[in-house]
Automatic annotation (TrEMBL):
The keyword Zinc applies. The keyword Chaperone applies. It comes from Choiromyces venosus 120613-1. It comes from the Eukaryota. Belongs to the SIMIBI class G3E GTPase family. ZNG1 subfamily. This is CobW-domain-containing protein. Pfam families: cobW, CobW_C. Residues 34-227 form the CobW/HypB/UreG nucleotide-binding domain. GO terms for cellular component: cytoplasm. CDD domains: CobW-like. Transmembrane segments: none annotated. Residues 317-378 form the CobW C-terminal domain. InterPro entries: CobW-likC_sf, CobW-like_C, CobW/HypB/UreG_nucleotide-bd, P-loop_NTPase, Zinc-reg_GTPase_activator. It catalyses: GTP + H2O = GDP + phosphate + H(+).
Length: 392
């Protein structure tokens, strides 16, 4: 196969929306291309999966961005810093209309540049390096959602190597330690942020072993949907890899937790009562307390006290992912989305179906098993606005 080379310079002017002829918001949203971030530990099968997609027959025009030439672990940096047009891009056009690209130091700007050739692409898949922490990458796309951006984050897919993942999760040597000495592996981070987990290399293990891996993954991330593959062969691409809308909707919020097998990462699902204005403010304040101040408010630990300050014994709470749905007493449905410290509460796009569902808040992260978030939230909501009087 031959490859076409383009230099990084503009060959066509960017398709900007002129001020005289603005698109309306809806049109603009429709014209944005969804980007799926594909993560997974070293050698899990990311490239294999993407190659499979590129060569399969399907009617989608997909742009695949591989990192094969990238230095491991520098994608986080390159996504923000390399905006100087210095990137060397390599392209490969495939017979099925897909395009494959491997770029050293690929940045958001470079991906948007790629989208200047849009019309060609229905979807973009981005392979991160095996050591990348998706928690750093996701918010860049998510927050870059402004009018100018031509791409939006559709979801995070994490591949795990069925034969090696348990060992990887238990390799204490590989745990990176924070100040409090609490650690975890990159694999933990990749699983906790996933919207879909692909358990790959099924051919290398027994059915029983796959079950063990499934349980382990579900115990950590109760929201992620799980699929088992060989050589990344995912039959229904749209269901599993494209059109995930993971940051737009919150799904059914059904958590598939049976037992918590992993000590590090776990999922907690909380029911929310119907909320009035005050309670909604309280919910917002409660989430801020957890995400920004790493505090779990309780009657004995007023907001503002360092609840988890005694780091000798206390676990370090670290919420990686948060999803929820809140129903107001006035009959409105709101959705809650969070990645690390970033979160938003917004009107559910589909009010009719959202309004029928139970209000819920699902938290995925570290240290959750050691604190009673349920009690804390119930108490905090019951206090009303008066419960949050301290200066923030
Ligand atoms: N037996 C088996 N081997 C697989 C499967 N999927 C991928 N492999 C092999 O595993 C190795 C690593 O696959 P890659 O697709 O390069 O993995 P990757 O996640 O892109 O690796 P990095 O980019 O280095 O992190 C290759 O030799 C693949 O051929 C599978 O389902 N079964
Ligand atoms: Zn790869």
């Amino acid at each position: 196969m031959g490859s076409n080379h383009f230099d990084g310079d503009d060959e066509e002017p960017p398709a900007l929306v002129s001020a005289e002829n603005p698109l309306n918001l809806e049109e603009l949203q429709l014209s944005k291309a969804p980007i799926t971030i594909v993560t997974g530990y070293l050698g899990a099968g990311k490239t294999t999966l993407l190659n499979y997609i590129l060569t399969e027959k399907h009617s989608k025009k997909i742009a695949v961005i591989l990192n094969e030439f990238g230095n491991s672990s520098d994608i986080e940096k390159s996504l923000t810093v390399q905006r100087d047009g210095q990137q060397v891009e390599e392209w490969l056009e495939l017979p099925n209309g897909c395009i494959c690209c491997s770029v050293k130091d690929m940045g958001v700007a470079a991906i948007e540049k790629l989208m200047e050739r849009r019309g060609k692409f229905d979807y973009i898949l981005l392979e991160t390096t095996g050591l990348a922490d998706p928690g750093n990458i996701a918010p860049m796309f998510w927050l870059d959602e402004g009018l100018k951006s031509t791409i939006f984050l559709d979801g995070i897919v994490t591949l795990v190597d069925a034969a090696n993942i348990i060992r990887t999760l238990e390799d204490r040597e590989a745990f990176s330690k924070d100040e409090a000495g609490v650690g975890m592996t990159t694999a933990h981070l990749q699983i906790s942020h996933a919207d879909v987990v692909v358990i790959n290399k099924a051919d290398l293990v027994t059915r029983e072993e796959i079950e063990v891996v499934k349980q382990r993954v579900a115990g950590m991330n109760g929201l992620a949907r799980i699929i088992v593959t060989e050589r990344g062969k995912v039959d229904n691409l749209e269901e599993w890899l494209l059109d995930l809308k993971a940051y737009e909707n919150v799904g059914e919020l059904k958590t598939a937790i049976k037992t918590q097998l992993d000590e590090t990462i776990s999922t907690v699902s909380l029911d929310l009562p119907e909320l009035d204005e005050e309670m909604l403010d309280s919910l917002d304040a409660w989430i801020r307390s957890l995400l920004w101040e790493v505090e779990v408010p309780s009657p004995s630990k007023e907001p503002g006290d360092r609840v988890l300050g005694d780091s000798s014994k206390q676990p370090i709470l670290d919420i990686h992912r948060l999803k929820g749905r809140a129903i107001t007493k006035t009959g409105k449905a709101l959705l809650i989305q969070g990645v690390r410290e970033t979160f938003e509460i917004f009107d559910a796009p589909d009010q009719n179906s959202a309004i029928k569902a139970q209000g819920k808040l699902v938290l995925i992260g570290r240290g959750l098993r050691d604190v009673d978030v349920k009690e804390s939230l119930e108490w905090f909501l019951s206090r009303g606005r008066a419960g949050w009087t301290r200066e923030r």
